[in-house]
Amino acid sequence: MINVHLPHANQTTLPDDGLVQISRAALIRLKQRGDNLPLRTIRVRSRRSGAHLTRLRERGMEFDEARLYQPGDEIRHIDWRITARTGKPHSKLFRVEKERAVILWVDYRAPMYFATQGRFKSVLASEAAAMVAWSTRKVGDRLGGLLFSELGHQELRPR
Description:
Layout: H1 24-29, H2 31-35, E1 49-58, E2 62-68, H3 80-86, E3 90-98, E4 101-107, H4 121-139, E5 142-149, E6 152-156
Parallel strand pairs: 4-5
Antiparallel strand pairs: 1-3, 2-3, 5-6
């Protein structure tokens, strides 16, 4: 897990009741909810190879389909079994696997220390970020973040 220390403008000790602030242990307990969080996959624009399939049919590792041979297809991608069975040349198509880096942006500035329904917005933001982080780690994506407070910001590169 990523350890981050952002100094807050108000350094007073507050109760760890989940309403005003949230403990690291409480964020760790959100792992099960984060693991079950269904995150939608968006189009991946990374040049790095990874676990997410793209719509691109290029020189990937994941077999997608076989189709009739078209001029320009690589000879080494000819599917000889289907060609022998049908009598017409077929070539294999593969899907490219791309890596997805997830960047969390969490705001801990003064407006986040306000509660409309019992809990501070900063607590809800921390819980949401923790669940997305757990879900990201479960599928093996890289995780990074941008954290903002009154005293500055901290950037965490995806890893």
